[in-house]
Amino acid sequence: HLDPVHLDQDDRRYLFDAKIIPMTEAKKEIIEVSLTDIDRFCIQCFKQLKVGWLCDEALRYCPDSIKTANFRLQIHKNCETICQHVMKKNIRLYKIKEDKIAELEQYVEDDDNQVIINEINDEHYNT
Question: How far apart are CA 117 and CA 127, in angstroms?
């Protein structure tokens, strides 16, 4: 097309909108590559973090690429810290923020083994 297109500021028809690109394998790969280590951790441990996971226990599963102090700072991007008083003890839990659940849930893959593991973990953490 040799004729230049004139766009008014009000006319947004020709502008690129990344939201309308269909979810293809290539798009999934680009999104997965752009995830941070803490995002990957939250996706990997999604079930535990969704119901509330002991802070010390979550720290044990922290990736080696993240230092302990950085983990504690970065986890608050996706999770909130909840303090509870149980049997005369104060416990701290990491729980995924409500507005982040849908965002992270789309990356969670449930294979049969993971479903069984998550059910066991859910029973363990709810008792």
Answer: 16
Q: Please say if the pLDDT value at position 127 is more than 60.
A: no
Overall domain count for the chain: 1
Position 13, amino acid: R
> Which residue range(s) make up the domain with 111?
24-126
| 17: its two tokens | 């909108």
For the stretch 111-120, pLDDT in tens is 544 565 666 6
- Asked if residue 4 is part of any domain, the answer here is no
For residue 39, give the CATH number of its domain: 1.10.10
Q: Is residue 61 part of a domain?
A: yes
What are the CA-CA distances from residue 33 to residues 26, 27, 36, 37 (Å)? 11, 10, 8, 10
Distance of alpha carbon 86 from alpha carbon 73, whole angstroms? 25
Alpha helices in 75-111 (DSSP H): 98-105
- pTM for the model: 0.64
**Average confidence (pLDDT) over 84-104:** 91
